[in-house]
Amino acid sequence: MRGSYFLVIKVERDMIVRTKRKEFALKAGYYVYVGSAMNSLEKRVERHFKKDKKLHWHIDFLLKESELLRAYLIPSDAKIEEELSGEVAKFGKPVEGFGASDLRIGSNLYYFKDEPDKILTSILRKLGLKWKSVKSPNEVRELEGEK
Fold it and tell me: Are 99 and 35 in contact, with CB atoms under 8 Å apart?
């Protein structure tokens, strides 16, 4: 399956996320990361749930220090990551320069004081998109078995 995804992440305390080249100051709260996987959506999301992995993308460094609560898999043959990120930006505060180096937008990570799930589902409904919410790598593997 191809498509995009949202990751809903809980950061327990104020922290500095250090990547290979940058540092990002994050405050405690909830974050939504917008990503895409135009080869294997399930495998990409399953990877995000793993703690033991090679740190490659900005999001890997954040997930090492925080809790991934759930992911929304959004199947699509079109690359809609930038559009989704723009919609999330209307509600969340962007973390400038985080994870959007290949896009025209300034961020793919957004801060929310409270759990953002109602906002995310309303965005997906407004755009007429289908999605599946998962809370573990096992649930992602179950989706792969449904094909």
Answer: yes
Q: How far apart are CA 24 and CA 104, in angstroms?
A: 19
The model carries a pTM of: 0.94
Long-range (24+ apart) CB contacts under 8 A made by 22-25 are 22/58, 22/97, 24/58, 24/62, 24/95, 24/97, 24/98, 24/109
From first to last of its 147 residues, the chain has per-residue pLDDT tens of 899 999 999 999 999 999 888 899 999 999 999 999 988 999 999 999 998 888 888 899 999 999 999 999 999 999 999 899 999 999 999 999 887 666 567 799 999 999 999 999 999 999 999 999 999 988 988 876 665
Instruction: State whether residue 95 is helix, strand or coil.
Output: coil
User: What totals of helices (H) and strands (E) does the chain contain, helices first?
Assistant: 5, 8
> Residue 147 belongs to what H/E stretch?
none
